[in-house]
Write a structure and sequence with these properties.
Strand order of the largest sheet: 3-2-1-4-5-6-7-8
Distance between the termini: 42 Å
Largest sheet: 8 strands, mixed
Strand content: 5-15%
Shape: globular
Number of strands: 8
Length: about 350
């Protein structure tokens, strides 16, 4: 039986990392939560004013949250480690400080991306680089728009891992009154659902930017879930996971909310902005832009058709004009919806 966390490290001080630190701190005010940030100014603001205004405005952070620019200091003695860095930087980050993770720590990934070049999920990168046993590497995913949760608006999520007892332990550690974590042993399904929906949200955002209506967006969301489910099944995950919070729930929230980074990035692309201009207009990373090609590559390797993903990648890589998005989504062989999901 695992004892309650004695100290929690949250590696990454963006909107979701900071918000989840708040969730953890609110769950048990007696447990110190240490937030690692890259910039001195962010650390100073959190420690002196208990805010992270760049990402969460004037939201007050609990008193048991502190911050540091030293990753090893954040990790020292932490029995629970939360990873909330950009997906494509995880390997280099872990190579720099991964050995500082306590040998008996439980590691939870909040990241929703696929590593380019290896097609590895984030949980697999943690196991490979940091040497954390797979039964102690979990993921948290669901309809988790950070600013809404930071305002204590009720929401639910899924903690997934191979070991049900460890997943329940993590869920207990992040259970304030406004945040309800469910557990799931379908790590593959939960993780894939969280990362593919970013690509689908880009597609919906592009449609918005092009001025398309709700029929188009509903079509993209529904068929996006279908192609995500095909990939999940091919990888050994479960179809029922895609009908839950980590599948449909996360997809709907990310595709429909103006708070969604990937939806926003897609809309900006649809309005005619270049990727460089999108980066300048946004303060946070839209993971779907960077991991879309990896998702398409993974799908091809498993013989899975993902036409929406392929269309997004073609636009992002400049291989097709954004105006071709609708044609690419619909100009396909007619098929039965019943026989082939």
């Amino acid at each position: 039986m695992l004892s309650a966390p004695n100290r929690i490290a949250v590696m990454g001080s963006g909107s979701w990392g900071t918000t989840f630190a708040k969730v953890l701190a609110d769950s048990d005010p007696s447990v110190p939560v240490v937030l690692w940030a890259r910039r001195d100014a962010v650390v100073q603001e959190i420690n002196e004013h208990h805010t992270n205004s760049t990402y969460l405005g004037d939201t007050a952070l609990p008193a048991n949250i502190s911050a540091t620019v030293n990753p090893r200091e954040a990790l020292k003695g932490a029995s629970l480690v939360i990873l909330a860095v950009p997906a494509q930087s995880l390997r280099s980050q872990l190579e720099a400080w991964g050995e500082a993770i306590s040998p008996d720590a439980v590691v939870v990934s909040l990241m929703k991306g696929l590593e380019r070049g290896t097609d590895l999920r984030m949980s697999q990168v943690v196991t490979e680089v940091a040497g954390v046993p797979s039964e102690r590497v979990l993921v948290l995913s669901g309809p988790n728009l950070a600013r809404e949760i930071a305002r204590n608006e009720p929401t639910a999520s899924v903690v997934a891992g191979d070991d049900e007892e460890v997943a329940a332990w993590v869920a207990q550690a992040c259970s304030p009154g406004y945040f309800r974590p469910y557990t799931n042993t379908d790590l593959i399904g939960v993780e894939l659902g969280g990362l593919v929906k970013n690509v689908i949200a880009l597609a919906v955002g592009i449609c918005d930017g092009l001025g398309m209506g709700d029929n188009t967006k509903a079509t993209v969301i529904t068929r996006g879930l279908a192609e995500t489910t095909r990939l999940v099944l091919a990888m050994g995950g479960k179809a029922e996971t895609m009908a839950g919070l980590a599948g449909m729930g996360d997809l709907v929230a990310t595709c429909s909310s103006p708070l969604s980074r990937n939806h926003t990035a897609g809309r900006l692309i649809g309005e005619g902005n270049t990727l460089e201009e999108v980066g300048q207009l946004m303060t946070q990373t839209a993971e779907g832009i960077k991991s879309g090609a990896a998702v398409a590559h993974l799908a091809a390797a498993h013989g899975v058709e993902m036409p929406i993903t392929e269309a997004v990648v073609a636009v992002v890589e400049g291989k097709a004009p954004v105006s071709d998005m609708a044609r690419k989504l619909l100009d396909r062989e007619l098929k039965s919806e019943e026989k082939r999901r």
